[in-house]
Amino acid sequence: MSDIGVSNFTNYINENGRLFGVMVGIVINNDSANDSEKPGPGLVKVKIPLLGMKESNWARIASLMAGKERGAFFLPEKDDEVLVAFENGDVNKPYIIGALWNGKDTPPDTNSDGENNTRIIKSRSGHIIQLFDKSGEEKILIKSSKGHIVEMNDGEETLSVIDKSGKNSIVINTKDNKVTISSGKDIELNAPNGKIAMSAKNIETKSSADTKIESSAGMDIKASANMTIKGATVAIN
């Protein structure tokens, strides 16, 4: 690892040649996995304007959790503002200990009501994970950038999967012990190598147009009590 030349370094070092405390940096490179130096994945390089540093050595990132092929992986984007510290004050060994919002890069939520009820993780393309903690309205929302939604709503006691159109959904209602599957057009159930079984106290099938039941093999229709078949015309062949 080579020493980094920094024009303003002497203004901030102590008598032992160390720089303690933190500095604000700007990410300039986050592709350590493909770098010719082969430093390994999950590292970034920054520039630190206050020091006149145009490019740091590869900096490790302090994470919520880290271990062998596990942990919370949130790599800063290029041009993100970050907080930089140095191992034992050595400017050649930087660490990223946090990310910073600023006047240009603003937070994804404003806490406008002052209640601090919302937690958000939002990605570059707009994927969102939201945690709502308002009493009586607690829920977790996962939303894709295109608008597909998975919602776990403790307030309403529902679990919902809704597509971006809002016309196709699966809603599990815990309070009413009810599951509702809705579609703006078709619903298909397929089990090419198994079976589809329906069991309930009552089963009711209705259509506003034609209804067709067909089997490529045999078919049994049985009733333990009376069976009624009605139609304007009934044809049995």
Notes on the structure:
- By secondary structure, this protein is mostly beta strands.
- Among the domains are: 9-100, OB fold (Dihydrolipoamide Acetyltransferase, E2P); 118-182.
- The protein is 0% helix and 27% strand.
- The chain is built from no helices and 14 strands.
- It has strands spanning 22-29, 45-47, 60-61, 66-67, 70-71, 81-86, 94-100, 118-122, 128-132, 139-143, 149-153, 158-162, 169-173, 178-182.
- The protein has a seven-stranded antiparallel sheet with strand order 8-9-10-11-12-13-14, with no helix packed on it. A five-stranded mixed sheet has the order 2-1-6-7-3, with no helix packed on it. The protein has a two-stranded antiparallel ribbon with strand order 4-5.
- It is elongated and about 100 Å long.
SS content category: mainly beta
Shape descriptor reads: elongated
- Order of helix and strand elements from N to C terminus: EEEEEEEEEEEEEE
CATH architecture of one domain: Beta Barrel
**Ends: how far apart?**
87 Å
Helical amount: under 10%
Q: Which CATH class of one domain is shown?
A: Mainly Beta
Specify Rg, calculated over alpha carbons: 30 Å
Q: Determine the strand fraction and express it as a percent band.
A: 25-35%
- What number is the mean pLDDT? 92
Number of strands: 14
Low-confidence stretches: none
Number of helices: 0
Widest sheet, order of strands:
8-9-10-11-12-13-14
Task: Give the CATH topology of one domain.
Answer: OB fold (Dihydrolipoamide Acetyltransferase, E2P)
What about the largest sheet? 7 strands, antiparallel
Say which CATH homologous superfamily of one domain is assigned.
Answer: Gp5 N-terminal domain
Organism: Ruminiclostridium herbifermentans
InterPro entries: Gp5/Vgr_OB (IPR006531), Vgr_OB-fold_dom_sf (IPR037026)
Protein name: Phage tail protein
